[in-house]
C-alpha cells in the first residue's frame, strides 16, 4: 500500500518548493520530511523530487502529486456529505493548468477569476508554448491545458475555443530605420526580430508565409508577452503580437503594422482530463464562455 504520509510529504515539497516549508506546512521536522521522501523513493526505486531552489517533481513525482490532489478532493467531498467524520478535510484542492503565455496575458485570467471566485480551489498555472502545453497533460503534470493541438491526450476531452489573432508590429522609428525602402525580404533579413524562446516559431512562420525562404534575421530573446509589446514600442525589434494588446497602440500611432492585413490566427483548444471535467465543470464553462467573447470565432 502507498505510504500516504510520505506521499503527502512529496506533494507538500513540490507545492511549497522546499523541504523546510513542507515541514512547516505539515507541522513536522525537516528531517522527518526528508526521511519520509527518502524511504518512499527507495521503495519505488525512483527519484520523486528534484532537489534544488525550488524543488520540483520528477515525472513520477508529478503523478504522485496528482494522486494526492485527487485524494484531497475526495476527502473534501466525503466530509461535505458526512460532517460527522470531523475535520479530516485536506483544505483547498490545487488544479494544475498549462497555458500559453499570450492567452495568459490576454483572456485567460478573467476566466480563472470567474472560477476561483465561486469555488474552494486554487490554480497552479504552468506556462509553455501552445504547441507544447498538451505535453504537460500527457506527462500527468496538469489536469487541463490551453493548447493548439486538437487531438485529445489520453483520458481528456477537447473543446475548440477560437483563434487568437496576431499582427506584426514595429515602432514608426524602427520602420524608418529598417524599412525606409519598403518591407521586403532583404530588409526583413536585416531587421531585428523578437523571439519568446527556442520553442517560438511564430515569427519565422510568418516570415516564410509572407516572404518565402530568407536568412534568419538577428533575434532578441524576450520571454514576456507584454514585454514584446513594450519592446516594439521602444524600437528594439519587431514581432507578432495579439491584436487585443496592440490595437490601441496602432490607433495612436505608437506602433505600425509591417504588412497591413497579414494576420496570423492561432487556433486554441481546451483539453481537460475527464476526472477534472466531472469534478470541476464550472472551470470548463468559465474558460469556454470567456474564450467565446475574447477570441476570434469562425
TrEMBL record:
<protein>
    <submittedName>
        <fullName>LysR family transcriptional regulator ArgP</fullName>
    </submittedName>
</protein>
<dbReference type="InterPro" id="IPR050176">
    <property type="entry name" value="LTTR"/>
</dbReference>
<dbReference type="Pfam" id="PF03466">
    <property type="entry name" value="LysR_substrate"/>
</dbReference>
<comment type="similarity">
    <text>Belongs to the LysR transcriptional regulatory family.</text>
</comment>
<dbReference type="Pfam" id="PF00126">
    <property type="entry name" value="HTH_1"/>
</dbReference>
<dbReference type="InterPro" id="IPR000847">
    <property type="entry name" value="LysR_HTH_N"/>
</dbReference>
<dbReference type="InterPro" id="IPR017685">
    <property type="entry name" value="ArgP"/>
</dbReference>
<keyword id="KW-0238">DNA-binding</keyword>
<dbReference type="InterPro" id="IPR005119">
    <property type="entry name" value="LysR_subst-bd"/>
</dbReference>
<keyword id="KW-0804">Transcription</keyword>
<dbReference type="InterPro" id="IPR036388">
    <property type="entry name" value="WH-like_DNA-bd_sf"/>
</dbReference>
<dbReference type="InterPro" id="IPR036390">
    <property type="entry name" value="WH_DNA-bd_sf"/>
</dbReference>
<keyword id="KW-0805">Transcription regulation</keyword>
<feature type="domain" description="HTH lysR-type">
    <location>
        <begin position="2"/>
        <end position="58"/>
    </location>
</feature>
